[in-house]
Amino acid sequence: MFDSLSESHNSEIKERENFQLALHNITHDIRTPLTISLGYIQQLIHELNQKNEVLKKVETNLKLVSKRLEVLLEFQSLLEKQDLELGVVNLTSLLTNTLLKYYDQLDYKNFEVDLDLSTNPIFINGNSESIERIIQNILGNVLKHGIETLSVKLQKYDNKINLIVKNKSQNPIKQVNRLIDRFYSENLSQLETSSGLGLYIVKELIESMNGEISISYSEPYFILELVWDKV
Fold first, then answer.
1. How far apart are alpha carbons 154 and 45 in whole angstroms?
2. What number of CA atoms fall less than 13 Å from residue 116's CA on the CB side?
3. pLDDT tens digits, 38-79
4. Whole-angstrom distance, CA of residue 176 vs CA of residue 26
5. Which of 31, 137, 146, 158 can bridge 167 by disulfide, Cβ–Cβ 3.0-4.6 Å?
6. 205 Cβ contact list (under 8 Å, min separation 6)
7. What are phi and psi of 89, to 5 degrees?
8. Rounded Cα–Cα distance for residues 106 and 126 (Å)
9. Number of helices and strands in the chain (H, E)
10. Residue 204 scores a pLDDT above 70
C-alpha cells in the first residue's frame, strides 16, 4: 500500500512539473507573435497619422492581452517556487523611485496623493526586484480600481516596518479578504475586468521575504498594509 501511495505521489509530482513546463512554453510562445503584432498595429497608426477607431480598438485589446500574459508569466514563476536572494534593501529609496514612475499616471487620473515617508532611510531584509514588483502591483491596483485619493505611509513601529496604502475604491467591495486569493476578482473597475492575480502575487512575494500582508475595507476606502521585521 505504501509503495502504491509513493508511486501515486511521484506520478502526481511529475504531472504537475509537466503542466508547469507546458504552461511556461505556451506563454513564451504566445508572447513573441503578440509583441510583433502590437508593434505592427502601432506602426500602422503612426503611419496613417490619424485616429482610426478600428486600429485603436485592436491596439487596446492587444495591450490588454499582453498585460494578462505578463501576469500569467509572473504567476508561473511563483509556481516554480524559486528561492529569492535576500539582502538589505533601502525601502524608502525604492518606494520613492517607484512612486515617481507612476506620478504622471496618477496625475492624469486626478488622484490626490498624500505621501508620508520617513525622512531617514528605512531598511528591510528582502529582494529589491520583488519589492519593486510588489509596489508596482499595488499602484497598478490603485490605478485600475481606485479613484480620487491615495495615501502612502511608511513608518517604523516597535520592531516592525509598516507600509500602508489607502485609496478610495470606485465601487463597494463585497468580500475584501478574498481579494488576495488566487484568481478571485470583483468588478471594482468601470473600465476593465481583473485577472485576479495582482494582489495574490503581492501576497506570495511578501511572504517569500518573511513579510506579512493584511487588507481591509472601510467604505469607500481600501487599505493594504505590508509588514516586515526591522533589520
1. 43
2. 12
3. 777 777 777 776 667 777 777 777 777 777 776 676 666 665
4. 33
5. 146
6. 78, 130, 131, 133, 134
7. -125, 135
8. 27
9. 6, 7
10. yes
The beta strand positions in the chain, using DSSP E, are 87-90, 112-116, 123-126, 146-157, 160-169, 212-218, 221-229
- Assign residue 115 a region (left: φ > 0; alpha: ψ between -120 and 50; beta: otherwise): beta
Non-local CB neighbours of 82 within 8 Å, separated by 6+ positions: none
Query: Is the preceding peptide bond at 33 cis, omega within 30 degrees of 0?
Result: no
Q: Is the pLDDT of residue 193 over 80?
A: no
Mean pLDDT of 152-162: 89
Closest CA to 207 of 81, 44, 50, 105: 81
- Name which of 4, 9, 69, 82 is nearest 38 in CA terms: 69
Cell, residue 127? 529582494
Cell, residue 81: 517556487
Taking residues 22-27, what's their average pLDDT? 65
Query: Do residues 150 and 113 touch, judged by C-beta distance below 8 A?
Result: yes
Q: Quick one: DSSP state of residue 53?
A: H
DSSP summary character for residue 77: H
Comparing 175 with 29, which gets the higher pLDDT? 175
129: helix, strand or coil = helix
Q: For the CA atoms of the chain, what is the radius of gyration?
A: 20
Residue 25 predicted with pLDDT over 70: no
pTM of structure: 0.68
Q: Which residue from 38, 37, 34 is spatially nearest to 26, judged by alpha carbons?
A: 34
